[in-house]
Amino acid sequence: MRILLACLFTWLLMAICNCLYAQNAASIQGKVSTENHVSADLATVILLAADSSILKSTVCDNNGIFKFNGIGPGKYLVLATKIGYNQALSGPYQVSTQSILNIALELVVSIPQLKEVSVTAKRPYVEVRPGKVVLNVQSSIIAEGNSAFEILRQAPGVHVKDAGGISIIGRQNALVTIDGKPTNLSADNLADFLQGMQSSTIQQIELITNPSAKYDAAGAGVINIITRKGINVGTNGTFSAGTGVGSFYKANAGLSFNNRTDKVNVFGSYAYAADNSYHSFTTDRRIDYNGLKSDYNADYYTTPKRYNNNFRLGTDYYLSPNNTLGVLIYGYVNNQDYVKRNSLKIANNGVLDSTITAGSKLTRSISNITYDINYNGVLDKAGKTLSADVLYNNIDRHSAEYITNDFYNAAGGVYRQPLLQQNLSPSSIANWVAKVDYVNPISKTSRIEAGIKYSRVKSDNDLIFGPLVNGQYQADPKFSNRFIYTEIINAGYVNYIGKVGKLNIEAGLRAEQTNAKGNSVTLQQEKDNNYFDLFPHAQLAYQYDDKNDFTLGFTRGIQRPSYTDINPFLYYVDLYDYRSGNPNLLPEYTNTLELSHTYNKTYITTLYALHTTGFYDFNNYVQNDISKVDVTTFTNFGTFSAYGLRLSAPVQFTNWWNAGFFLDAAYQRTKAYAANGDLNKGTQDINFSSLQNFTLSNTINAELSGKYESPTFYGIGQFKANYNVDAGISKQLFNKKATLKLAVTDIFNTHRDKAHSTYQNLNLTIVDKIETRIVRLNFTYRFGKTSVKSIKHQTANEDEQKRVGSSN
């Protein structure tokens, strides 16, 4: 509580300082429109100094309005850009203290005779808007050299599970997309994918808490990762290389390039990362049964070595000025080696009875490749657009583990022969997706959007587990299993976007029909689960005056079980600990309501409420007191609700020091269905983070960030507080074409999950720790053209990116 009060006091003090500073600052505001006097919503506006260096940037709202606050006296240029239009450059303007400058800019189709404007500054790392947080990855020192998994773990308001689940609101898993396209990966495969995706290949990450009906209704919110892809005419690219050390070594290197002409845009990237780390996991179970108190204490430790190859290659061909055909291949190939050791100590009534140790070596290879053909076209002068996308994704995994179990009595002597076991788990996943989207502007201020989508996923998972008998490994029928899961989703949506006076309206409805079938080949058992759902979405944005804007949004989402969640067979951890899927597991549904207030286009306050039914997104431990065996599984446990307040406040202390402060304070309640017990527990969950930026000279910058989460209760576990501090410094070289960055994450090595559960017959304590304190040194060099001059063609991938932000 002292830490929380200190953080809140510091935040209040900084906000007061910022208000005092703002009293002496000027502002530049205005409107961007097209040549037919239509508001240029989502146009990018850049504030330039007289020497054409970039100072700030922002995005116009639905009315084409923009505003820059906290401007000091001087001369400024204003540049407006939007895909499909040429730039509009205005100024220079002389601004004095406390003045308010109003300007208007018009984007035209004809080619203006403007000089190129060199990009010499960067956007802030974190940009907060109603319903969305944008992480500009290339602007962060700390993010440099990290994987997408680590970047999300450090991001404000994001909760990342080591197994791969990621949430941005109320701990409910979010849908992860790449350039607006769903990854369709289970939690473990998603973790592998994100760990292999390096920061050098990422332009932005968008955290969307109120997604429109265009998006798949999967999860509570959307995390959209936008990959790097140049839009400038000519050839340009980036080379990066780095090294790091924690408890073990790290290394990474990457190359991204883009070559754009009037007819063709060719782009690609390749990133390699070698990561040797550790993961420790301890569980202490106390069992009180028939007067016997037993302790089963397991200490698990592994040193995974990962070698990740991430690649992307694509081309956009401009069939005409308004029609684009794109082809894209991307994915990763990972090789992993694990050395594991597990020690299980068994004690009865406080006296050590025996110890079982398990040592193993695991080798795993994963290939995940996606083939994508897409089209985007403008059909007429009114702005009707049509886009289509056909995608095929294939994942192949090969995994082989050989385990040696040794058995010792209390005195350390061997009481039985070692048990040797084989664990083979190859799997394959094939995913077909086809979708079509259509936009029809029905007036200058409104449009209708509609689309259909077909998705088919088939996974084939084979588990071969058993002991070594007479020199040959035998498949144990209790653990060996082949499971085939097929899921077909047919979806369609319609969305209306319009304006009435000061009120902007977005309302949509998405329909999804799901046909799922699980087939246990070993047991010759099939289970079908077919259902139809409607997912409404609405958002009302009201501009009360020049400084106050209000946004009200509602959305409904679904989280479907993955094939591993419903596979009924047991997965071996040790002789007293197993994992199992649940063939009767049903989807969970989440309804989210948000009310946001934006003051002066800067400070955002959001009230939200979230309610989930069929809640299952946590490990449910089922313990047999007689056999002492614990099985971890998923169950439709009950309902989960969260009621919270989010605050975002950027503060400009001086011309060399600015910061962002983010607070998410929620009251959460978990209530079990009657069949699962009588749990009905409420608790707080407070997340506070801050990012400090320091401009030490024209070429030297520094960052300091911290993140804190209060103790909270989730699922059936009470979690302790979690916090970490990161820092970094960068130096620009070679006329600002290169950057050298030094960063350290989790300086005090405090990030870990600690939880305790005493629900029903369970008395369990866990401590989960992965390697997080890492020092990284990275070098980046940008080559080719770095101007903002571009051509007016619009690619299919750019349309996907624009759609991500169209609902905010």
3D structure, described in words:
This protein is mostly beta strands. It is built from 5 helices and 49 strands. The strands form 6 sheets. It has a 29-stranded antiparallel sheet that branches. Strand 39 and strand 40 form a beta hairpin. Mean pLDDT is 85; it is low at 1-24, 110-121 and 787-808.
Overview in brief:
With 808 residues, this protein is mainly beta. The chain has five helices and 49 strands. The chain has a 29-stranded antiparallel β-sheet that branches. The protein has a six-stranded mixed β-sheet with strand order 8-9-15-16-13-14, covered by helices on one side. A four-stranded antiparallel β-sheet has the order 3-2-5-6, with no helix packed on it.
Keywords:
808 residues; mainly beta; 29-stranded antiparallel sheet; 6-stranded mixed sheet; 5 helices; 64% strand; globular; disordered N terminus; disordered C terminus
Shape, please? globular
Instruction: Count all strands and give the number.
Output: 49
Distance between the termini: 35 Å
What value does the average pLDDT take? 85
Unreliable stretches (pLDDT < 50, length at least 5) are 1-24, 110-121, 787-808
Output the number of helix runs.
5
What is the multimeric organization of the chains shown?
single chain
Rg, Cα atoms, Å:
27 Å
Helix coverage percent: under 10%
Based on helices, strands and strand pairing, what is the structural class?
mainly beta
Main beta sheet: 29 strands, antiparallel
